[in-house]
């Protein structure tokens, strides 16, 4: 088949939809159009796209590349476009591939030549990188707020239960008694580190790619620092090739999101376990649970289960982004268009999950009696008895041995260490005296661990108050 010569087109948007169509002799098939288009999902970046365009246009006017009249027209046009988008009246078209070309085309429709000048000194490559950075920055700020709510809720419940005792586990075997408040504050620490990670990631997100243009920079006398300041960036990306190509900042964000979900998932696992009637430590508010269509007695902890499940998809997005990036030569490649859906979904997932969980934590009904009963089974104070013997001058290994024998005797008698008579205890070690009972109780055990990071109620109260004060501003 003879090739047709391309029709020269004066106006890039005149009669063919694609912005780059003058170069081509045949249109893409509908399937290829759908395959290559991103407007279905990147229209989420519309606000950031307009924000970036306005900053770029303001700079172009300031350095004299476009006139002030053009800039004023662009401002006006963009204001109408934003209105149309907000009102759901904007006609997104797959023919125009992505959010950038859709908005630019509409701008030209509204304001004519001034709209066609907007893309001077710019490429969709630095444009999209800027949009995503602005978007991720907003998500980070919101996630930081939500992590604050989450920690506030955990610390609030911890303060209430600073002295509530439950068994602490290792290997899911009863280990030593801990306070429920202490257990909750462990999660407040995890989410605190998650917040630190996001805040750190924000520093690298918050650099301006615009000015890199397609890959090599631009011949126009642009002022990148001015655009950076307008958009609230801390600085500019220092290499144009890097600016348009790397998505490491998005990967970092997804890594931080994956860690948040990992922590959420661990907490969820515990909530599910604690709510099992076999354990019965807590009850979740009905609004986070569902019933069974066949078993009338069921109240299922759906929200924590789903959160545990959704953790997998966020890990998946992290892996997808890492894989997306690994084989790409410099600079921009269309592969990068695949960065968005996973990134959006990771951000949506942590946003919804953290929002729901802050509320869910506040609605936990605690059953201290069930926790206490569980702590009384399993010889949780055995280490305290060993420590007691050490304080009486017995070497730790000998003390450990004596207590192990006492535990075996208790198993035979089906009783707790504190139920043994003094003579019985003394048969395991003569150094044991009447004062031992003060150490065998659950209260004595937790109160004795009053150092920084320990489980003693006074310590938990202090830590909870510290976190409450730290997170109060965000409430
Ligand atoms: N939709 C594209 C993306 O998301 C925008 C950049 C397109 N650049 C290009 N040279 N085709 O990555």
Q: Low-confidence spans: pLDDT under 50, at least 5 residues? A: 1-12
| Sheet of most strands | 2 strands, antiparallel
Amount of helix: 55-70%
Question: Which ligands accompany this protein?
Answer: arginine
Structure notes:
The structure is a single chain. The protein folds into three domains: 31-117, Fumarase C, Chain B, domain 1, CATH 1.10.275.10; 124-372, Fumarase/aspartase (Central domain) (Fumarase C, Chain A, domain 2), CATH 1.20.200; 382-440, Ribonucleotide Reductase Protein R1, domain 1, CATH 1.10.40. Helix content is 60%, strand content 4%. It has 20 helices and six strands. The protein has helices at residues 30-36, 39-42, 46-62, 68-86, 99-111, 113-117, 124-160, 180-205, 224-231, 240-245, 248-275, 302-326, 340-362, 368-376, 382-391, 396-413, 422-426, 437-440, 442-447, 457-472; strands spanning 165-170, 173-179, 207-208, 235-236, 282-283, 365-366. The strands form three sheets. The protein has a two-stranded antiparallel sheet. It has a two-stranded parallel sheet with strand order 3-4. The chain has a two-stranded antiparallel sheet with strand order 5-6. The longest helix is centred in the first third of the chain and has 37 residues, at 124-160. Mean pLDDT is 94; it is low at 1-12. The chain binds arginine (ARG). Arginine binds at residues 38, 42, 98, 124-125, 128, 332, 334, 336-337.
